[in-house]
Amino acid sequence: MPRRYHAGSCSSCRQGRLFLFRNLVTDDIYAHCEECEWGYLTPADIDTKGGFLTLLEEFDAEYAWNDSISRSVWANYTVVAVDDLDET
Ligand SMILES: [Zn+2]
Q: What residues are neighbours of ligand 1 (ion), with CB under 5 Å?
């Protein structure tokens, strides 16, 4: 069963969870807010409210899996796995 990973709550809207995605063009792992569509390239961007509006970027992305997360800047950040079965 595939799992999705999120890095906690969005510091911009304080509502959405930050799901980790992989940019298929650059291979970067970034956190994408499910509510406000804000993106954070690094954990530091969450703290400083940096980041970018993902809607303005043109690239393909997919949910990031554990192996790519562990090789990214997110490896030492608190990442929570979400089982799709738990989504109701
Ligand atoms: Zn947000």
A: 10, 12-13, 16, 33, 35-36, 38
Would 87 be classed as within a structural domain?
no
Q: What is the pLDDT of residues 24-64, one digit of tens each?
A: 999 999 999 999 999 999 999 999 989 999 888 888 999 99
Give dist(CA 47, CA 68) in Å, integer: 22
Distance 76 CA to ligand 1 centre (A): 22
| 12 belongs to a structural domain | yes
Model confidence pLDDT, tens digit, residues 64-76? 999 999 999 999 9
Q: What is the pTM of this model?
A: 0.88
In a domain, 67, yes or no: yes
The domain tally of the chain equals: 1
Region at 24 (left for phi over 0; alpha for psi -120 to 50; beta for the rest): alpha
